[in-house]
Structure prediction request, 478 residues.
Amino acid sequence: MRMVVYWIAWGHTLKECPLRQHVMGEEGGSWNHPIDTGETPEDGAHFDAIVVGGGPGGSAAAGYLAKAGKNVLLIEKETWPRDKICGDAVGGKSLSHVKELGVKDTLEATPHFRVTGIVFSSPKGHQVRVALPEEDVQRLEAGYALPRQQFDHLLFEQVQATVREAGGKVMQGADVREVLYQGAGGGEDPGSGSGDLRHAKGVKVRVGGKKGVESAYFAPVVIGAAGYRCPVAKSMLEETYEEQMMDRDHYCAGYREYWDGVKGCEGNIGDIEIHFVDTVIPGYFWLFPVAEGVVNVGIGMVISLMDKQKKKLKAMQADVIANHPLFKERFANATMLPNTGRGWQLPFGSPRKKSALQPRRSASQGIFLVGDSASLVDPFSGEGVGNALVSGEIAANHILEGKGPEEYQKALWAALGPELTNSYRMQKMSRKAWLLNWFVGKASKKPAIQEMMTEMIASKEAQENLHSPWFMFKTLMF
Ligand SMILES: Cc1cc2nc3c(=O)[nH]c(=O)nc-3n(C[C@H](O)[C@H](O)[C@H](O)COP(=O)(O)OP(=O)(O)OC[C@H]3O[C@@H](n4cnc5c(N)ncnc54)[C@H](O)[C@@H]3O)c2cc1C
Prediction:
């Protein structure tokens, strides 16, 4: 079984994999197959909504709209199967959406790593384990870790079927190049124009690479879900409002590799690990097993802090693996899966200074942004899949209820702001080695703190407590 994910991460087709039947379960259920998304819509076609990007945010938005009977065009730049650079941890927050969108059972029937705890270590090497007990999975909503190639494929495959059943269309290998606005030409639908606030009316899409064919599609709303470089977010923020999209204080660089045979990461159930290693602070190093001995190993750091470092993330990671006393033995007999080392950016949802719109503008006339496109990644844990799914649902509900951009912006921050603000505080604290040493040292000896951390990480109700300084003070000090 170890070979299974190895082969997938390596980019081999399952046909070549000796354990093909075992992985696939039922014939045709694999995440390593192409997905048939049907016919391309005709140039100039109209829809109720256009969703740009088929990752978790776009799939959620398109899925919820289609479930409500809307005629959706879902556009994805890549062609499935495709990789996505990530830590591959899918937290508890995602589970209700995975279920609602109809993929929970399929997902659980494929190989995945069930997360039953998170191990944190401090720069001094103290460790604390936060338990997410299997018997409490339902209440605590503990999550999984599995390659995003697999997770996204399962989600997209189901959602594209839902979209098409509701009369919509799905495109892959289709690159959205431009957002079209009312009164601004770009097709046969001139619209009415709306003064200084441009109202989106559709998108221009290119299929077939640089010399490919361009088509225009129209809808009263365009959902930007194309990740941190989303063309819809770029058009809205930089062109319409002349606002900054990328912010080095609030964007994180991440680097990921897949390894096989790391000691302590065997099996399909256990802990994921977050290490605040002395040579990596102010960033962190992670080991997230994804099943059968294959581990997602990575490193992340806020970009403005990385600007001050001499080493790049890849070199830092190589150094930890080869030389750090906590890890070199664990990696002694491990091998990196070829061609799996890649970097990407995480747009954090940490509140920006002096901005009335938090974390930044996320909607405009005819535009809703979700997931990374709206900069919603948790600034402490680096988790963004859950918030992409949550924002996809909120955007869909606002569109279904005919609500406008201001209401969406408020609802999004009301739902995610407290948690993102708190995580930002924790991220800033985690830059200080002495504080981490103190906290992890204390937590490793105090079961009450470990229990608090379990509840904080996994239980929605307990997260409310995080906003009470008194509760935190009491638990830490007494
Ligand atoms: C190194 C790293 C580690 C991470 N670890 C974790 C983790 O362990 N857990 C976690 O929850 N999150 C993690 N994240 C964050 C997580 O990956 C993102 O927050 C999440 O993928 C956001 O989902 P999304 O749907 O908004 O965007 P994406 O997943 O980026 O999906 C965007 C989609 O849009 C498509 N697209 C792009 N441009 C266009 C275009 N022009 N036209 C059409 N389609 C387009 C892309 O191909 C892609 O399929 C990590 C991120 C990184 C970089």
Summary: The mean pLDDT is 87. DSSP finds 16 helices and 19 strands in the chain. The CA atoms of residues 10 and 339 lie 7 Å apart.
